[in-house]
Every structure is written in structure tokens, then in C-alpha cells.
Write a structure and sequence with these properties.
By secondary structure, the chain is α/β, with parallel strands linked by helices. It has 6 helices and 7 strands, in the order ααβββαβαβαββα. A 7-stranded mixed sheet has the order 2-1-5-4-3-6-7. Helix 3 packs across helix 6.
Length: 176
């Protein structure tokens, strides 16, 4: 029952956030404002080492995807993300971040296991204080962003996206 309550609450918050954006909230894609780098904890998982990462990385194109381990669409998004990551190499910073409440409903080990089970092979970070989520004005998961070398959002997309669409957005920002 508790999981159902959490899912209902998260769904309600996502709908509320989406409604607020539709009414005329701040949109980083339209504002032209740079997003200040935020230090996120990275976890030990395939393609990721325990430590920290500055996201977005100034002076480099950044692709960041916000996800959750309970999200079915996030799970299905891992295949196109892996395909794009395999072509990006060092051309762009490539990172996925979750804002799930670590230590409450999920552990670092849970996230690392989910990552491994879904063939993640790039840095995975924790946005437990919602700093990155708020800086990008994201409402829901999965939500992906491409930022150019000056940390300005040049593309964003919510929901499932194709590898071609993601790769094109990275290329357009100068990451290819």
C-alpha cells in the first residue's frame, strides 16, 4: 500500500508541476539563462565511480537525464541512452541523475543494481536535494536536457525519446 501512495503522490506532483509550466512558469529552454554547475554525488555502478561530478560541466556540452528506478518509461529509455552514449565518447558530458530519497525508499545499492540490470554504463548521480531538478525546472521523469558549452539549455524532452533525437540535440549544441 505504501508504494501505491508514493506513486500516487509523485504522479500528482508531476501533474501539478506540468500544469504550472503550462500556465507560464520559467522555462530554461526559453530563458537563455545559463544553469550554474551543481556538485552531485556519483555512485559506484557500471560506468560510474563513487565521488562527485559537476553538472552541467562548464566549457563542455552536457547531456543529462533525470530518471527514477520505479519509472517504467525510464527503464525503456535506457536502450536509446546506451546507444547514444556509445557514440558520444568524450565529445560531451553524459550523465543520468535520480532525485529519489536515498536512505528512505531506495538505497545506493538499489540504484547500482537497477543501473547494472538495465545496462547503464555512464555516470549515474544523486540529486537528493533536488538542486539540479530545480535548476532545470524539471517536472517528472524521464526528463532529458542538452546544455551547450556555456551551460544554456538548448534542448529538453520529457518521456521516451529516440536515440536519433537525442544524438541530434547533442550535435546541434556543438557536442558532435
Amino acid at each position: 500500500m505504501r508504494r501505491r501512495e508514493v506513486l500516487v503522490g509523485v504522479t500528482g506532483l508531476a501533474a501539478l508541476g506540468g500544469g504550472a509550466l503550462a500556465v507560464g512558469g520559467w522555462n530554461p529552454l526559453e530563458s537563455g539563462d545559463a544553469v550554474e554547475p551543481i556538485e552531485l554525488e556519483t555512485i559506484d555502478a557500471p560506468g560510474s565511480t563513487a565521488g562527485t561530478a559537476s553538472v552541467p560541466e562548464r566549457g563542455r556540452v552536457t547531456f543529462v537525464e533525470l530518471f527514477a528506478t520505479w519509472c517504467g518509461v525510464c527503464e525503456s529509455q535506457m536502450e536509446p541512452l546506451a546507444a547514444v552514449h556509445g557514440t558520444v565518447d568524450d565529445e560531451a558530458q553524459f550523465v543520468s541523475a535520480t532525485s529519489e530519497p536515498v536512505g528512505n525508499t531506495v538505497t545506493r545499492d538499489d540504484i547500482a543494481t537497477w543501473w547494472r540490470d538495465h545496462d547503464g554504463d555512464w555516470p549515474v548521480a544523486l540529486d537528493t536535494d533536488l538542486e539540479l531538478t530545480e535548476a532545470l525546472d524539471a517536472s517528472g521523469v524521464p526528463y532529458a536536457f542538452v546544455l551547450d558549452e556555456s551551460n544554456t539549455v538548448t534542448w529538453s524532452g520529457r518521456g521516451r525519446k529516440s536515440a536519433d533525437e537525442i544524438r541530434s540535440a547533442i550535435d546541434a549544441a556543438g557536442g558532435g
